Amino acid sequence: MRFNYDLLPGEQLAFDEIALRYAQQHPDEKALTVRGLLSPSTSHRTLRIRAIFAGEESNSSLEDLLFISDDNERKNYLRRFEHYLKSQEPFAYFRRSEAQRDNLWQVMGESRVYAMIDPHSAAAQNLLASRGYQLVLMREDENEAYWQLFDPQMHPCFPLSRRIQFIVVLSTPQHKVPTAVMAGMEVGRRVKASVLQRASQAEFLAAVKARYGGCVITGTRLTERHSWPWVEACHIDRRQNEEGGLADNSVDNGLFLRSDLQRLFINKMISIDGDSGQIRFHPDAEIQQSISPYYQALEGQVCALWEAVPLATRQRLGALG
Questions:
Q1: H or E element: which one contains 93?
Q2: What Cα–Cα distance (Å) separates residue 1 from each residue in 13, 40, 248?
Q3: How many CB atoms are closer than 10 A to CB 170?
Q4: Following DSSP, what letter does each residue of 87-152 receive, concatenated?
């Protein structure tokens, strides 16, 4: 009978063996799974990280760095790593290189978050340059920045340029203490606002879509076959919190509106009475004249899906005045 279920740094193990040993050490927890870059305990109710699995093919040969993209509200990578940066709790960390075709993972040992850095920052450039690497911004649009990492021979590390939201620097038993970056460094407000708002938007959209299924004002349904008229989710109260994200991202703060009506609503040219559900136009006569007669016909009508609007949402509409 086997009694040794330790995960020793440097060991090369198949995932099934890792999962078995972990289950023996933590019999009350759910089983480990490997999905993409990271496999933390995914739940918006906890910040715990049980184990991290990172492959060279998506994360470069720099074993103590994690290039994070595609954060979302369920994964909560930003909040989880921040929690572990401040608490300095350890977690299990495993790596696999491109050369490992036999599906073995190297045990990196109990690791900790040493720092978190913005890819745009001088700290990121200095850290990578100290190791002979370059992180190059390939293109940028309004919402996304795409990066390529080049090794000391100027070979690209990623198959294609990729989004990088932030970089996590780890301290592990397998590596020396990281240099060229300050311990405890956190990403700034720009990164937090971008990541947190993007992370929660998909969840918000799905919840609003499931609640209404069509335009609250006209009843226009959103279908898979037709892309027009578009129906989109929007926020009622758009005030920001201290981190630069929306203060209220709950489904109760959302409406599903046809895109043209959404723009009128966001720009406060039309409103919805929180008590009656009637559509109102801005009282300014000049603004009313600038609105097409096609829309003016909606004045005073009750929203087609008003019965689906819950009290909490009606209260938010009423608070807009």
A1: strand 91-96
A2: 19, 31, 55
A3: 23
A4: H---EEEEEE-TT-TT-EEEEEEEEEEEEEE-TTSHHHHHHHHTTT-EEEEEEE-SS-EEEEEE-T
10-residue stretch averages of pLDDT, the chain, 321 residues long: 73 89 86 60 68 85 91 80 94 82 86 95 94 93 83 92 93 88 89 72 84 92 62 86 71 91 88 93 65 77 95 92 66
**What SS3 class is residue 98?**
coil
- Give the global pTM: 0.66
Q: How far apart are CA 80 and CA 2, in angstroms?
A: 34
Question: Identity (one letter) of the amino acid at 249?
Answer: N
Pairing of strands 231-235, 254-258: antiparallel
Helix 77-87, helix 189-212: angle, nearest 10? 140
Separation between Cα atoms, residue 156 and residue 135, nearest integer Å: 10
One-letter amino acid for residue 121 of the chain: S
> Distance from CA of residue 293 to its chain's centroid?
41
8 Å CB contact between 8 and 27:
no
Asked if residues 288 and 266 have their Cβ atoms less than 8 Å apart, the reply is no
Q: Which residues pair with 52 in a beta bridge?
A: 93
Residue 81 in 3-state DSSP?
helix
Beta strands in 30-82 (DSSP E): 51-55, 65-68
Return d(Cα 130, Cα 125) in angstroms, integer.
8
Q: Which tokens belong to 180?
A: 């060229």
